Protein 1
Amino acid sequence: MDFVADSTQSTGLKWSAPASSGSMTLINTGGTTLTGASVNVSSIPSTYQQLYIVVRGYQPATDNATLFMRLNNDSSAHYVATSSVSSSGSFGDTQVEFISADNGTTTMSGFTYIYDYANTTTWKVLSTQAVAPNATTPTNYGQNRLNQYWNQTSAVNRLDFLPSSGNFTAGTVYVYGVN
Amino acid sequence: MSEYIIKSYNCETGEEEIREMTSQEIENHLRTQQEYAKNKELKQKEAELIATKRAELLARLGISEEEARLLLG
């Protein structure tokens, strides 16, 4: 909050109204079902601070297939994923990852934040966490907590989802704009 | 219908489109999946090699993995 001029106040000043914050808007109304070989959510408005992407019930047709996501349909080696606290290296991945999953269950759950996705001057930072039934022993879990990065400066306006093998059987993606 | 179906949701218009991938899209899609499978296999082989080397070294030193951890900790 700031002080702003206001002649009706005895001091001539008042506190300004706080900037609106803390809101979350579902951008892809109702969520988008994962089906076929690939699913994309496009024309994402650049009016939010962050993107919060929730995936529920990802189920691949091929056992143990990993859920991938791409930014702006970029399939070049512009991505990297790491679970290290601190590291350095080159960009060699062609997508970001959520998690691999069992092909007989729909209890996978995960999310990714894309910080400052609309800026056009810096690389993008993604924070991902997901859990899914293990493909070999579905009563066991598999989990991922990844720091992922994209070395492009464009605003993110499109997300593509695809499995690392085969097609999607089930799942829903929710893309939220966060302020 | 082809198994290469692409679904698009446009946030601006709210329209959803489901169509078959173009031949170029199928080519890209398959390349992605094949490269990932190849990299995954390489990483797995690398991890197996490291595990084998570690086991060999521990055997040569005559200590367990837990003892090695104690030594380095």
Note: Residues 3 and 68 of chain B are 52 Å apart (CA to CA).
Protein 2
Amino acid sequence: MTDMTDDPFDARLTAALKEYVAQAHDPRPAAEIANAAMRPRSLRSRLAGARRSRRVLYFAVAALLLVPAAYVGVRLVNVPPPPSPGEIADWAADICGINMAFGSDLQHIIFEDFHEPLQPTLEQLKQVEADRRPSVEEAYRAARDALNDLTPYPGGEPFRQAMLADFQSGIDGIPETYEAIANATTLDEIYELDPIYDLAAGASDLETAQSVVEMDVAFSDAIAASTTFCRWYEYDARARVKGIATPDFSEVAFEDGFDGDSTFANTGFDSGQQTIAVGTLKLSFSSSYRYFVAAPGQYGDARIETHLRFDKGSYYAGLACRGDDNTGYQALLGRSGGVLINSSDADSHMIGRVPPPEGFDISNGVDLAVECFGGNSDPFTLVVYVNGERVAEVQQEHATVSEGPWGLSANSYSGGDEVTFDSLRILVESQ
Amino acid sequence: MNALAQPGTLGTPELLERAQSGDREAFTELVERHHDELVRICFAVTTDIDTARDAAQQAWVKAWQQLRTVREPERLRTWLVAIAANEARQRIRADSRRRVREIAPVLPNANDYTPIRSPEHLDLAAAVRNLDPDDRRLLALRYLAGMTAEEIGAQIGLSGSGVRSRLSRLVAQLREELSND
């Protein structure tokens, strides 16, 4: 029973909202979702991101309430496995600070803010695991025995039996688990194998819970000491140059040299400063930020050009067409010259990526041009030129947006980055 | 309760009872019946499909933990919806603290979501996105889940009149944004 009114706007809002969300669904089968919800482990995801005091709280609360902490959280994000080192691209080093060879094919990766295999961190974690193995074994047995002492078991007897089976399985598997940890080559493997999370998940007495927390401090410290935050994805690039015919964009619709009569002004933004000086527009970032500055007007089909130079730091910078970083497209250069092409709507999706052109050196400055056109009855096309060479082409069956503001875009991921643009020009087809 | 009955053939009271006793198949059937709606509710709150799926998944974790607290089967749906909406709201609040959005790859077979692109929906999407997560939750509970002000109030800690008052302001705001197209 609802208390809807007869207001036509109510009906319109309801219909519009329902249509808006109609395609939102989860392709996973119900059994997978249910199993993940019922799984008696994986406290990890929530705890890994929690401050230590919060971790203690989780464990203590779980223990005091005699509720299996297993049901406090579940690992939700399915992440593809990392590629082999040979597949990791140079341009990823723009962000991650890891020196890797560029793969011969166009399978590539992208980053997220997780720790990934840094050898010192890996070795440190292995040592932590080895040091705490006796304590873990002892705690496992204590937790199993504690489960038997609870009558009636708060979650019901089926839960108790399931937890007991899990613990026994954990105890039986300890030798094999620690051998696998010793041979692990990625942080993910250690996370996956680490028996302490199952242990923590099942600890139903305060003493065991506290001991688990204490054991986890060293592990947490080792993670916190890691300096690089990367996670790899594989992705099939679709930006190869195919020679798509482009319109003749030759009529200058907007031009700015960032000099005395520039349309743009000195201004601060949340995490940095935009400075106009001596024919340049300089962006300085004090912390991570995505920045977009638009030229006046709205354009649909057009070409945008700039000359930019990476002064300091590692980031992506380039041009945006048909909207800002929430609604349009961006073609961004990495320090190595790799080109990243994004389409933004509710989220930002990489729709193409190409390796750097031969002999590319961003620190000397580079001419970057982007053409965006089509997308109504014909496919939307985005073409990227670096130093006059066509380096990437992306097509979508339909454009995300048909027109919008065009301008400069830069993504800083760590702060301390500086990029300089010394021109901006937008060209349209001559009438 | 018929012990041999397949969960898919059971009514909500019997299904709930079996799930509360730890029956995995019964709980799976509850997921089957309600998950899509939870994802849609979460999407209305988060405006991001991946976050919505994660929030809906987490809602099931909480539902499984607390299933035994549901005494009235007829309230199961609104209870689930409220958990999901709240989870989505918390996620969007947490995400908003991150100033740099991740660049998510379009993985083959991993993103089958095609956003609606008609101008009207772009308007609505923009209007919804501009709302506070609390307001998005309110909107989702009211207009998607069809819950009454009293039902919403019971779930979010407000009186029915308080919910109506907030909804009234919210709808006026949306009316202004969407009616001026």
Note: The two ends of chain B are 55 Å apart (CA to CA).
Protein 3
Amino acid sequence: MIGPFNLIVPTGVLANSSDVFNILDPDSGGAATFSVPLSATGLAPATHYGARTMLEEGTHVALTAMTVQQFKAYVDELSVTRGRQPVGSVTAFKNSLIIGEGNFWEFIAAQGLKRIAPA
Amino acid sequence: MKDQVKGRPIHRIDEVAAGTLKAADGRPVHAVSTYVDGAPPADGRPLHAASLLLNEGQPSHAVSFYAAGTLMTADGRPVHAVALFDAAGAPTSAVFDPATLFAGTEDGAWYEITSTAGLFQDSAATVGAAVGAVVGYVTDKSGNGYPLLQATTAAKPILRFDNTISKYYLECDGVDDTMASALGITMQVASYVSCAWHTENRGAGTAFGPIFGAFDAATSELGIGLRSQTAVTYSFLGSARYNGGASASVGGFEVSSIGRGTLIELSMDADSIDLYLLDTAAATETRTAAAALTGTDPIVAKLMGLAASGFVGRFYGGLIIADQLTAGERTNARTYMGSQAGVIV
């Protein structure tokens, strides 16, 4: 694995993102990858969700260099290999994902986002 | 000295309390440095000059730790015998073993990050751990079967090795890392919780949440936690929620501005709560009246990165015992856990 990498997805594609990462994560808990609620004000409701994670090298390439079609093929192949629930469309996730390296807090700040503190 | 264990290979030297390891001439040895296999620093770190003798009687100025059975001096000569002595000067053949705390089928858990043994990258414990890789499974060495688990890669801490103090540790990223025991522990009023951990940095922003502790799953009672704004503040969290509360916890206390290199220990019985903190400058021990505890709620062990704090914490090991320790046991456990974090208590 390489990384760690910072990931952000909009709340609207959280479910799709969770379905995709349920396949991409080599361990069984990938569906819970995006666990950090974010918003512009740092107050609920969350407009985005973030994660900081290591990635398999192939997955990093898939996320950063593949087209949507190529990425779909990659995910479908992994779902078979890993015996995970296949995902229908990856388009929303792939087109919405923001990925980068470095300090997580600077990364989300650069996107105009703050973490929402748990109650 | 050499007669006690002459000829037996040395596979490991554990750090012991100051003054308990003595050289042949009776002078105390205050530090033994260990290094990764085959990679001692160029200079070696000196013991007290000439105070540790080789089995042939020649002085050693530095000791490095090599692969099994090959303890050598800085100039490359093998060491065949090292003896340990207790504080009273009596020889002892082994350092304290936390396993003795669980010999009476005590409920609880014991975690160590002293090597890659017992650590796995995946939560199913099939892929062995490696430095720089995530950790999803930490074996419970107590034998009670409460491994620390994390099945989501993003939430797994990373195994690191600090060459300075020659220690493995789990690095929590302060964003989303967390591990928890798989099963509940029935915690009694008389309880002991200790963790060897280290504050790597302090970030700005709203900070909350424990690094390690034992918590009631519903109310988060009983535990060691950290709640910080601008200064690092460690708190015993009585009936306060572990991830909430603005200030002093109910029935508990706070000790402010503790620095890096901290071992933390919580011991409690029906009469009192003792909290022990150690940083690089001073140890602080605080005793307070016991909080009203519910006593028998199910508890899980948790290791957490501190969300939103920018805090990066190092976890070296932890002990949770659902019983009151004797003073001697607590001293031994404290010293042992301190050694896991590279500090001498």
Note: The CA atoms of residues 31 and 71 of chain A lie 18 Å apart.
